[in-house]
Design a protein that fits this description.
The complex is a heterodimer of chains A (about 150) and B (about 500).
Chain A lengths: L2 H20 L9 H23 L13 H21 L1 H15 L7 H25 L11
Chain B lengths: L1 H6 L6 H19 L5 H12 L4 H26 L10 H10 L3 H34 L4 H19 L3 H15 L2 E2 L6 E2 L12 H19 L17 H10 L1 H16 L4 H16 L11 H13 L1 H11 L5 H12 L6 H5 L2 H26 L10 H20 L2 H19 L4 H26 L4 H6 L2 H32 L1
Antiparallel strand pairs in B: 1-2
Helix pairs in contact in B: 2-4, 2-17, 3-4, 3-9, 3-15, 3-18, 4-5, 4-6, 4-15, 4-17, 5-6, 5-13, 6-10, 6-11, 6-13, 6-14, 6-17, 7-8, 7-20, 7-22, 8-20, 9-18, 9-19, 9-20, 11-12, 11-13, 11-14, 12-13, 15-20, 18-19
The chains are: A mainly alpha (about 150), B mainly alpha (about 500).
Amino acid sequence: MKRDGIVSLVLLAGIVSLYLSLGMMDDPQAVTFPRIIIIIMGILSALLLLQSVVFKQKNDSKGAGFPFGRFLICFFMIIIYFFLMEGIGFYLSAFLFFIAVTFILGIKDLTWRTGTFRVIIAFLFTGILFLLFKVLLVVQTPKGLFM
Amino acid sequence: MAEFLHYFPLALSFTNLLTLTLGVIGGLILGATPGLSPTMAVALLVPFTFHMDPATGLILLGAVYTATVAGGAISAILINIPGAPANIATLLDGHPMAQQGKSQTALYYCFISSLVGGLIGMVIMILFTPPLAKLALKFGPPEMFWIALFGISVMAGLSSGSILKGLLGGMFGLLISTIGYSPLLGSPRFVFHDVLTGGVAIVPALIGLFAIPQVFSLVETLGLKLERPDFEPEKGVLFKTIADNLKMVKSLSIGSIVGSIIGIIPGAGGQVAGLIAYDQAKKFSKKPESFGTGNPEGVVAAESANNAMVGPSLIPLLTLSIPGSPTAAVLLGGLLIHGLFPGPDLFTNHAEVTYTFIASLVLAQIAMCVFGIILSRYSYMVMSVPNLFMIAAVTVLAVYGTYSVQNSFDDVIVMFTLGTLMYIGRKFGFSPAPVVLGIILGPIAEDNYLKGKLIADTDVGVFSYFFTGSMNIIIILLCVASIGYSIYGEIRAYRKAKEAAV
């Protein structure tokens, strides 16, 4: 089964679950519009499945060479950043996130010189954000333990 | 025209001019930065306009929109990578010029042609938008319902390689827009978790769908080294280039006319405009063989076309809520968060904001040319910004931009979830633009469907109410034509690929 075929099967499974969940909702009138959309999505997914069978796709190698490790590191760094932002505030967490991203993802090129440069850029970036949001636009930022 | 002239001085206030200047400079830099799409740049800015008055906020978005289209030519010319899809045709002759040591001349041609095309496009926009908005006055619930679906069908066909995937994206967007409480009946729908109680707001969706996939794409390409910019400063070429450029009347006319026509067609966008104009300029040229080898006429035709598209692409947006390009779809989100709904209301009740915005777009074209010429000398530096810094900066701005609208972490979670799903979706050929449009147009479609159904139930019945009447039939036929055209294009591409494989 080619990529589009698998995608359409996954979509059909999701669409069936969503359609069944409509029955659990209190007001049948309120789900009229979503029901129509889900039915149309079901038809489109079935057509995609049919298309993948009728029009033979080439085996592409898009999945090959995908840097899963880097992707997962970045994904989890962003999640940690969300929690940190609530805990220690916007500016400090932004500064730490900037340093973490540039040091961890760019570890191959890390030397004393590049490291110092990255810390300076992180400091300047956070400083500009502080000036822009706190001083110029006077908008609320997540506060946390610090600002 | 009289209203436009009446409100023009408002665009010249100190705050508005400062915003416009910053927007244009920022837009040129963002447009020139490979890896940052103009659509994402405008999406990231939308929440910041929330803290400004509507006119100033829209001026910022409009200035960035205008400048990113022209700024994208910088990376197209210097490193052979278009900063935006609209600049694909520019690199065909722009990069060979840079390789011949004429990068600065090529950049000057690009900004001057963009100005000429952009101004012509703006004139067309000013002339055609108010009368079309009056036409929208005649639309009732069924017409508005079909218009919303037409917008999604057009975007679905043009923004992704497969019409089925585009339509699935649009429907997914419509479904997301129904999360939360029903607008007319007040009952909860798909509230599987507390964070979804308030539904999915436009800003988290815009930022998530455009910025987060871009962050992950930058992570993917971290190891890649870009081509070194071909930039050699040239002295005393500015005035000669201006004179030469203005003599290229044929290329400028072809570009401006093609760009304006393509701009009005919803969904076609700058990429199509640039390529068609380039092709036509080549056909009408006395030396067609010189195209692709560094002929300035190629740059002039492509750049005048993609900027001529900017103004007219806003005509269907401001009158019927149908964006002419993915970036215009984001701009629609910017309008809606300020409580401005496309249609005649914009030109009557909100005339001051609307005409100030339109006037600022004219000024943005001029500012884009002036600052583009000034910055072109230093533009190669932008290309040296490491992806690492962009990953960190875009993530921080995306998170804060999302949080700032309602001071809500729930929005941040929604933004990141949608963004991660979109990144996976992109790997399978799905595009964010139809999803965004579905989320934006969903409430319009549902509201008008429910209103229409209520009226129809007491009158002629749902089928007659939605499927008869000349205007309904015209819009339905347009929907069918738009989907049919995309299917035809796909079949043709499939046959070509099959023939090439044999």
